[in-house]
Design goal:
By secondary structure, the chain is α/β, with parallel strands linked by helices. It has helices spanning about 5-15, 30-45, 65-75, 115-120, 190-195, 215-230, 235-240, and strands at about 25, 50, 80, 85-90, 95, 95-100, 105, 125-130, 135, 160-165, 165-170, 175-185.
Length: about 250
């Protein structure tokens, strides 16, 4: 069997945070979260529903992307994924611009309702493949979606984890900060400190290494999950798994 690749470690780590949920939704441009949701569904033996935006095979919405917001507002979505040009130590997400707002260095498409979903989806997993001081900053330049709210604000949703290409962070909701949960194979604590623009807590004792999927899980990832994700992300499936699209 070929060696485990980084994408498979991320898929396995994300899926572990979805086990036991009823409905997981995945937005656009999210092949790794999408594959993780499909893995979690496979392990649920069909009890979990997965909605992947843009998919024909794994999308029960009949009214386009806007239906995601209706389902989330009704409390029928257990988990969703958010990313951003910047994410800071308070779990704020920036999807709008970098630099001064009136004269930005870079402008992005917009927030896409992230502020709303961040408030109503109970388990929001932040996901960023580029783990550098440029993307994980001390304070975002623009808040598209706030990580935390005041105690008098009704908010059933919020951040659950932050996973990057280097490590997995847990969220301390009382202290309103991140705590390093595990480090992916091949990386180190010193590297995480060096490449992270915000301060974060460390667990007591030795920091564990992020689990590598075992043979049974790899078989699922490289089999049914790879085949299903190729329907919407054929280039990703071909590059990571060597699987051609089923469409």
């Amino acid at each position: 069997m070929k060696a485990v690749v980084p994408e498979e470690i991320l898929i396995n780590a994300i899926a572990a945070n979805l086990d036991g949920l009823k409905h997981v939704a995945v937005g656009a441009s999210s092949p790794i979260p999408g594959a993780a949701a499909l893995l979690a569904r496979s392990r649920s033996q069909g009890r979990m529903r997965v909605s992947i935006l843009g998919s024909e095979d794994n999308n029960f919405f009949s009214d386009g992307g806007k239906e995601i917001f209706d389902v989330a507002g009704q409390g029928r979505m257990d988990a969703f994924f958010l990313s951003g040009a910047q994410i800071d130590g308070k779990a704020n997400v920036n999807l709008v611009s970098v630099g001064e707002y009136q004269q930005p260095k870079a402008r992005f498409p917009g927030s896409f309702g992230s502020g709303y979903l961040y408030f109503v989806v109970p388990r929001v997993i932040l996901f960023r493949l580029e783990h550098t001081p440029r993307t994980l900053v001390e304070e975002v330049d623009f808040i598209s979606a706030p990580g935390f709210s005041d105690a008098n604000v009704y908010r059933p949703g919020g951040p659950h984890k932050l996973i990057t290409d280097r490590c997995l962070f847990d969220v301390d909701k009382k202290r309103k900060c991140f705590r390093l949960e595990s480090i992916h194979p091949g990386h180190s604590v010193d590297e995480i400190h060096e490449q992270t623009g915000f301060k974060f807590d460390l667990p007591e004792g030795e920091i564990p290494e992020t689990s590598t999927p075992n043979t049974d899980i790899l078989s699922i990832i490289r089999g049914e999950v790879a085949s299903e994700i190729s329907e919407i992300y054929p280039a990703f499936a071909a590059r990571v798994f060597g699987v051609n699209s089923t469409v």
